[in-house]
Every structure is written in structure tokens, then in C-alpha cells.
């Protein structure tokens, strides 16, 4: 497709129609983003777009995607955003512009197989550990399974999706009783219920749709691992792209438990006539013994006994898979057979990967807990290589997030996904021009000239370094970086307070001085506080201290209830504090007076003993780079930016982000971290922070 095929004006007009129909207002950043995405799709150039909260980035990429002449995939990291796109943004957008010329508004949702109810498992039963089919478990689990079965049958009758997210409330254990993995699936051709299958219905709809909404993990499995999950597509828009490397890593991480090897052997014994299943059981015993003798942590060299046990499991699993008889047509619907063989195949694949102990992988042994015994994990040392070779080389990729520029630049994140700094392009045409003396006037420009002027708006900025396309080698992956800014005036709406007077955080958790600081800040804010802590223990300690000294406030801690319930209570009562860990750092959206203070107890560096992070940091050092800055500081910058982003969610929000770690202003790497944050007004004076919070509290009432 060329720029002439879909004129810039067509995207502008469709965006304007959508904004008007949805009751919004035109935003220069959103318009600049839409034009840049359209240009990237037309020219097959990769694009990184940083779009601050409130920009309206969903429309900024959905509108040009609907205009593109080939199928586009949109991949999100969180279920919350996927739900927002499918349940709110896309239906409203289709209603607004679905009939316009050049717009293909058909769309579908695709998730992993285990996210859908399985009618075969529901109607025929689930195999127990011996492979025997059981209809319904006993007790409360059985009652919930019956409820889920009834729901799934109603979904089948009504033409519903059968998706996990639409099901009655349940636990993961309960859902596993009505779903299957891809290994356990009989396949549509063999399953007697293939015509009604929810997964097959979803795939059929995707085959007929122009836009497919999925998640990072399924995208990784399809594009990087080469398992076909998504119909052929031309381009992908990756929203929440700051999460991409973590999600790709997660999708490529395997685990091996001695108990799972044992369970696979028990399933196999019903179908394997020789001693191969017994040999696999013996290998499980050897693995359990070797794990018991090994020290938890990362292995630079796998201990000899453990290596021998992995080889034993690998060889026994391979022999066991080969010993399964060939299925006859009469056995086509034998779910026990399919699932037993699938389990042994999974054990073989993981044991083979671990036994190879390749330099491209990191292997470690977890610490045992009361609930889970120690087990082995293996993950890729880096993912940028596979992402470059198997995704970027084949598709046009647009990545967007509110936090893509780390240290004020796109280079760090671009490199993590496989894009080289030397491949960054100068813009082919001006996107924005800022002029005017009495406050900026942002002129968003397209191929046809000026589009819109918005006086006093923050200016989008396009990175201009880099060569022209013609100067790059044939195997280059050219890309452009665009920051469209934010409609929020962070300098007036938010204060970044760094408690420079506090001692640096230690290994023993929160000290008296940090707890006193928390209480004083919360008291000044009269609640209205989101506390983001580096550990569950720190969050609980802070919550206990605030409850003790400020009993008139409501103080909630993560774990007191399910997160949606905690968020509801937090929103309903402004004189409430909510303290928690990583689950609150991203995705919690609480605009208004509910949240006027965000407390971050320490810079969220990864733990020094984190096996994967420490391995990546060492690899960067060995390659001549700065492992601390490339790995640890980058990880911390992303989380800090996401955490600070919880404060300002609308044009009317105001408040304080309080970081209790003085290293943010005293350490050399502090500049990199603060440059990754929204441009808030900054102070190290605790009185200024408390007085600002008190004024806000008085105004809020």
C-alpha cells in the first residue's frame, strides 16, 4: 500500500468522526500518532510511539489499522486492556465509523486454548491421575465445576464465546476441570464436539476478520516459537509494549517438577504395554533426589547428579512417547490417551532443553515453599534475537505505551526488542511544528499540510537522528521513534517528592524513619494514598503502622481481599489507603480525589539473587556493556514510571509522588531514572510535600 492509496486526510477524517461520535475532543498527540501509525503501515517501517496517559492512544492506532488494506493484529499485555478494547473501544468505534469508505471494521478476539471451556471435557469428563475419566469431582470443587459446566452449555446454545473471563467466578484449579491445553486437545477433526468448539469458532471468526485482538504471549508463541495460532497477518500493533520482553520471556520459560514427571508416568502406564512408563517413574525418583541435593539458585554449570537425572528423564520420556501405540480411528475420542501422551511429550521437551544446558538459556532451581516443592526453571538469556529474526523481519511492528522512553530516549527499549540504534530513521516528512511566543501552538502536519492547531498543548516530538532508508543495509530493520506527549500538565498537576533526608533503604525492610515519613504523609493527605512497596512484608508493615497511628483512616493491604474488591473500597472512601506490591504498580486506574498521594518505598531494582536478571546483567558486562544500567536500572525505570503514572489519570487530578529512596537524587544513575518519569515539579523538602497534600485534602473535603 502506498501513501496515495490511503490519503492522510482519510485517516484524519475517520479519527475526527470517531472522536465526535464518542463525545471526545481532538488531541494533537492522538492525531500525530494516528498519522505516524498510518505512515508506518504504508511504508512497512517499525514505529515506537510513546503516548502519555490521556492521549487516547487506542484510537490513535485503531483508526489507521482499520484503514490498512491487510489484516492487523493488536496485542496487549493485560486482560484489562484487552477487555477495554473488545468491550468498549472497538464496538463504539465500529458504530461510529464502520460504514465509512476504506474502513474494514470486522474484528475478533483470540486467546490461548486453555482460556476457553472444552465441551469434550465437560461432557465426557476429565482424566484423573490414572487417566480414568471422572465426570465431576467431589465436594465444593464439584459444585463449582457443575456451575461452570452449566454456564458452558448455555454459551454453546447461545453462540457465546465460552471464554474464561466471561465465566462465573472461579479459581484456576476449578477452571482446569473444564478446559484443556493444546497438548490435551483431541483436535477438531477427531473430537465429536468439534463443530461446537469455542476455540474453533474463535479461529473461524478471526479468519474472516480484518483486526484480531490477542495478547503478547499468544503473539510470541505464534511468531517466535513458530506454533501457528493466528491467521496470516501483515502488521502488529503492540500496546503496553514496555511489557513485551517480559511476556515473551515468560512464554518461553519452562518448568520441570519431579511430581509432574511422576504424574506423566502414571498417566502413560494405562496405554504403554512395556516397561517404559515404569522407567519414567524411576527417572522421576532420580530427579527428585538430585533436586534435593542441589542448592537453590542459578546454575552456571548444572551439578553432575542433576545433569545425569535430566538426561535420564529425557531418555525415559522419549522412549515412553515412542511406546504409545498408534491411535486407531475407533480411539479417536480417547481424551485420556491424548492427554497422557501430551504430558509425556511436554516432559520430554522440557528435559531435553534443560539437559542441553545451552549458553542461550538460563537454568535455576527454585526455593521450596510450604505449598510448592523446589523445581527447575529454564528461560532464554535474551529475547531480542528471536524477536528480531522471527517477528520484526517478517511483520511491520508498531509498539506503543506511556513508558517507552527510558532515560529520555527510545534506545534502551528499542535494543531490548531487537531494534538497533543505527537503524533509527530521520522522519520522511514533518509531523509537528511548534511555534508562537505566548504559549506553544502545536501544528500537526500531514502530507496535505496543516491539520489542526491547539494552543497551549504539550508538543509531540519526533526523534530526528539516524540515516535515510537508502543508506541502510538490506537486512536492516528501520524504525522511527515518536513521543506524542500527554495532555496533562505534570509540572502544575504533580509534585515529585524525594525524601533525601532519609537513610538509604536496607535489607531489613522499612526502618523507623521510613515508617514515620509514611505516617506523616498519609496524615497530611487524610488518606487518599496508594502505597507501592518492594515486598509484601514492607506493605504489611506499613499498613500495620498506619492503622496503629491513624486509626480514623481505613487502611487496606494487598491480600486482605481480592484486588477488584480492594480497588472498589479504595475508590468509594477517599479517606482510605491501599498498600501493596507489584500487582498495584501497573494497571490500577483510580482517577479523581481517591488517589492524591503515591508512595514508593524504594527504587524497584530486581533482587540481586534473581536468576534471570543477574544472568542478563553479567552477560551485558561480558559483552562490554554496563550490565547494571542495561538490566537493573532499565527494570527499575520501567516500574518507577508505571508506578508514578498511577497518580495523574485525568486533567483534573493533582497530587504527590513520594519516593522514600534518597538514591533517586544522590546516585549517579538517579538522572536516568528521573528522566524516565513524567516531568513533575520536584522537591526534596518534606514540608513542601506535606503542605501541598494538606491543601489538596482541604479542597477535596
TrEMBL record:
Keyword Hydrolase: yes
UniProt biased composition (Basic and acidic residues): 161-174
Keywords attached to this entry: ATP-binding, Helicase, Hydrolase, Nucleotide-binding
EC number per UniProt: 5.6.2.3
A single MF term (Gene Ontology): helicase activity
Reactions performed catalytically: ATP + H2O = ADP + phosphate + H(+)
Region (Disordered): 154-174
Domain Helicase ATP-binding: 16-301
Cofactor: [4Fe-4S] cluster
Entry similarity comment: Belongs to the helicase family. DinG subfamily.
Listed name of the protein: DNA 5'-3' helicase
Native species: Nocardioides panacisoli
Amino acid at each position: 500500500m502506498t501513501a496515495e492509496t490511503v490519503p492522510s486526510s482519510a485517516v484524519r477524517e475517520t479519527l475526527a468522526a470517531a472522536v465526535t461520535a464518542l463525545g471526545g475532543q481532538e488531541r494533537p498527540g492522538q492525531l500525530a500518532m494516528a498519522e505516524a501509525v498510518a505512515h508506518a503501515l504504508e511504508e512497512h517501517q517499525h514505529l515506537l510511539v510513546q503516548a502519555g496517559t490521556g492521549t487516547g492512544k487506542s484510537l490513535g492506532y485503531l483508526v489507521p489499522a482499520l484503514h490498512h488494506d491487510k489484516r492487523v493484529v493488536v496485542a496487549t499485555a493485560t486482560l484489562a486492556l484487552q477487555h477495554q478494547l473488545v468491550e468498549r473501544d472497538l464496538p463504539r468505534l465500529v458504530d461510529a465509523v464502520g460504514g465509512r469508505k476504506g474502513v474494514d471494521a470486522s474484528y475478533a478476539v483470540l486467546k490461548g486454548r486453555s482460556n476457553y471451556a472444552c465441551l469434550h471435557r465437560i461432557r465426557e469428563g476429565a482424566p484423573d491421575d490414572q487417566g480414568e475419566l471422572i465426570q465431576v469431582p467431589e465436594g465444593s470443587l464439584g459444585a463449582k465445576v457443575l456451575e461452570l459446566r452449566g454456564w458452558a452449555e448455555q454459551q454453546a446454545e447461545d453462540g457465546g464465546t465460552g471464554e474464561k473471563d466471561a465465566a462465573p467466578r472461579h479459581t484456576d484449579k476449578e477452571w482446569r476441570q473444564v478446559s484443556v491445553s493444546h497438548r490435551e486437545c483431541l483436535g477438531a477433526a477427531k473430537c465429536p464436539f468439534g463443530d461446537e468448539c469455542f476455540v474453533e469458532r474463535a479461529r473461524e471468526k478471526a479468519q474472516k476478520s480484518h483486526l484480531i485482538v490477542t495478547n503478547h504471549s499468544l503473539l510470541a508463541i505464534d511468531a517466535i516459537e513458530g506454533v501457528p495460532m493466528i491467521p496470516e497477518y501483515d502488521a502488529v500493533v503492540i500496546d503496553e509494549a514496555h511489557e513485551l520482553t517480559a511476556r515473551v520471556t515468560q512464554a518461553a520459560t519452562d518448568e520441570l517438577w519431579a511430581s509432574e514427571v511422576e504424574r506423566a508416568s502414571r498417566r502413560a502406564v494405562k496405554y504403554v504395554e512395556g516397561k517404559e512408563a515404569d522407567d519414567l517413574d524411576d527417572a522421576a525418583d532420580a530427579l527428585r533426589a538430585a533436586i534435593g541435593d542441589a542448592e537453590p539458585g542459578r546454575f552456571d554449570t548444572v551439578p553432575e547428579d542433576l545433569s545425569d537425572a535430566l538426561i535420564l528423564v529425557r531418555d525415559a520420556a522419549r522412549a515412553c512417547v515412542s511406546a504409545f501405540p498408534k491411535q486407531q480411528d475407533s480411539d479417536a475420542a480417547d481424551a485420556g490417551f491424548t492427554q497422557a501422551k501430551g504430558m509425556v511429550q511436554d516432559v520430554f521437551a522440557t528435559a531435553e532443553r534443560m539437559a542441553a544446558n545451552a549458553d542461550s538459556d538460563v537454568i535455576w532451581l527454585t526455593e521450596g515453599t510450604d505449598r510448592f516443592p523446589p523445581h527447575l526453571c529454564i528461560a532464554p538469556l535474551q529475547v531480542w534475537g528471536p524477536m528480531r529474526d522471527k517477528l520484526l523481519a517478517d511483520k511491520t511492528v508498531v509498539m506503543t505505551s506511556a513508558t517507552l522512553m527510558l532515560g529520555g530516549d527510545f534506545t534502551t527499549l528499542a535494543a531490548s526488542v531487537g531494534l538497533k540504534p543505527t537503524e533509527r530513521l530521520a522522519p520522511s516528512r514533518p509531523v509537528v511544528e511548534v511555534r508562537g511566543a505566548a504559549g506553544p501552538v502545536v501544528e500537526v502536519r500531514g502530507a496535505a499540510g496543516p491539520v489542526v492547531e491547539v494552543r497551549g498543548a504539550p508538543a509531540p516530538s519526533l526523534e530526528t537522528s539516524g540515516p535515510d532508508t537508502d543508506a541502510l543495509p538490506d537486512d536492516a530493520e528501520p524504525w522511527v521513534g515518536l513521543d506524542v506527549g500527554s495532555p496533562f500538565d505534570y509540572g502544575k498537576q504533580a509534585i515529585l517528592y524525594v525524601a533525601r533526608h532519609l537513610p538509604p533503604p536496607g535489607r531489613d525492610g522499612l526502618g523507623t524513619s521510613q515508617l514515620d515519613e509514611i505516617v506523616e504523609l498519609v496524615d497530611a493527605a487524610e488518606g487518599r494514598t496508594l502505597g507501592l512497596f518492594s515486598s509484601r512484608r514492607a506493605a504489611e508493615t506499613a499498613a500495620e503502622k498506619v492503622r496503629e497511628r491513624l486509626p480514623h483512616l481505613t487502611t487496606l493491604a494487598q491480600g486482605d481481599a481480592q484486588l477488584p474488591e480492594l480497588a472498589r473500597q479504595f475508590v468509594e472512601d477517599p479517606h482510605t489507603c491501599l498498600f501493596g506490591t507489584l500487582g498495584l504498580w501497573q494497571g490500577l486506574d483510580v482517577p479523581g480525589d481517591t488517589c492524591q498521594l503515591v508512595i514508593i518505598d524504594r527504587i524497584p531494582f530486581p533482587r540481586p539473587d534473581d536468576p534471570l536478571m543477574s544472568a542478563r546483567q553479567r552477560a551485558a558486562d561480558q559483552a562490554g556493556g554496563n550490565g547494571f544500567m542495561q538490566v537493573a536500572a532499565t527494570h527499575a525505570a520501567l516500574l518507577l514510571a508505571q508506578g508514578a503514572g498511577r497518580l495523574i489519570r485525568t486533567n483534573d487530578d493533582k497530587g504527590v509522588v513520594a519516593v522514600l529512596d534518597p538514591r533517586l537524587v544522590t546516585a549517579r544513575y538517579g538522572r536516568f531514572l528521573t528522566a524516565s518519569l513524567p516531568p513533575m515539579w520536584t522537591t526534596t523538602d518534606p514540608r513542601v510535600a506535606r503542605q501541598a497534600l494538606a491543601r489538596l485534602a482541604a479542597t477535596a473535603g
